[in-house]
Amino acid sequence: MTETLSERLFSEAKNLIPGGVNSPVRAFGAVGGNPVFIAGGRGSRIYDVDGREYVDYILSWGPLILGHGHPAVQGALTEQVSRGVTFGAPTALEVDLARLVLDAFPAMDKVRFVNSGTEAVMTALRLARAYTKRDVIVKFEGCYHGHGDSLLAKAGSGIATYGIPGSPGVPAPLAALTITVPYNDLGACEAFLKARGEEVAAVIVEPVAGNMGVVPPAKGFLQGLRELCTRHGIVLIFDEVITGFRLTYGGYQGLVGVEPDLTCLGKIIGGGLPVGAFGGKEKIMDLLAPTGPVYQAGTLSGNPLAMAAGIATLSVLKDNAPFYEVLDRAAFSLCTDIEAVFAETGVPVVINRVGSMFTPFFTSGRVNDYGDAARSDTAAFARLFKRLLERGVMAPPSQFEAWFLSFAHTAEDRDRTIEALRGFDPYGDRS
Ligand SMILES: *Cc1c(COP(=O)(O)O)cnc(C)c1O
Q1: For residue 431, what pLDDT is reported?
Q2: Does pTM top 0.90 for this prediction?
Q3: CA distances, 206 to each of 238, 256, 257, 259, 263 (Å)
């Protein structure tokens, strides 16, 4: 068979970039085969360099809730490009996006913009440690909070995909300050805090886990964390980098009525440009330089292009807030149809879904934490991924990721997906 352009580019890339990619999961390492190189995207579809079209359920790992190339976002970007792309000085755009974010997150008094979710989380932890004058961080197994040193212990996303137990290069004394507890296990968290709560600066959690595949919080889990943190004087951090503006106009915290002390954002608030943000109670946020002594800075922080794309995205979402319900119904119907197709072939599959984020797991039990997710059949998932890819559907190339729907997805996209799965048995003919 002749080499595709994607294959040729990947061979070249591997000589130039470690693994040929700038973020590990993109390499298709967990599902096998050659990653496809993307030439463009429009609405719910992306196109590879060999001219093949795919229904896109990755959506750049979450940011593109409006789909690819939404006219409002494109327009805002084009206009800002003509004015200038970066100044390293304050702009009105930062004030506008800050106001939009703060209005949507009542628990946040102030917010600061950075360049990635990783940066947001790193600084939120630094603030929590400075505020409490304590060092220990509690996180949950399978949750991913970016690649900061303190947060790679038992993390999700690429760490789970490649089965990396933490990461070499993180000093042991630092790693020892991060304690991991199973997701949804309030009792384990309570027991740890009872013993060592006075050492703990922050409890950080994805209010809906998205990086071990989608795992919803158990009833009372987030409320329980709030109570424990208040009792022990610990800063509660919600990492809403995925869930912010994904499930409602605002955060999951608004849907469950739990107020964290700090919130981390990213993905959707940048409309597809590199962005992150963290915010929360004024008494904590004002510890940041230049008001306070906790240092954080960024050459491109609050970048005008990222702000413009974020403002455009949030404005469309705000004007179309009822559409979240439409999206929820569309995701429900897609997941129901996928379940029905697998029921026909008798293949056990569990689909966890919260609004427009979902993950199919090949397992017969419930998937309530990372242990459950890890027990699902990742080889079957790899065969599912390959089947879909061959038939023009781009799923995330790992069991441990969320699939997303956008405002641009249609019934036709759903039909193509269901047709691609009809008659497919991940345990059947493997030729
Ligand atoms: C993507 C993600 C991050 C990291 O954001 P980057 O912009 O990739 O650094 C942090 N937390 C969660 C929950 C994420 O999904």
Answers
A1: 42
A2: yes
A3: 6, 13, 15, 13, 10
- Ligand 1 atom 10, closest CA: 145
Q: Active-site residues: which are they? A: 144, 239, 267
Q: Where does 5-69+322-421 sit in CATH, by number? A: 3.90.1150.10
Residue 211 Cβ < 6 Å to ligand 1: yes
Q: What's the pLDDT at 429?
A: 61
Q: Based on the number of CB atoms within 10 Å of its own CB, is 107 exposed (0-12), middle (13-18) or buried (19 or more)?
A: buried
Per-domain residue ranges of the chain: 5-69+322-421, 71-319
**Best residue among 26, 125, 145, 205 to mutate for probing ligand 1, ranked by most atoms within 8 Å of CB:** 145
Dump pLDDT digits (tens) for 211-244.
999 999 999 999 999 999 999 999 999 999 999 9
What is the per-residue pLDDT across 1-12, written as a single tens digit (0 to 9) for each? Answer: 689 999 999 999
Q: Is 26 in the pocket of ligand 1 (CB under 6 A)?
A: no
CATH architecture of structural domain 71-319: 3-Layer(aba) Sandwich (3.40)
Atom of ligand 1 nearest to the CA of 211: 15
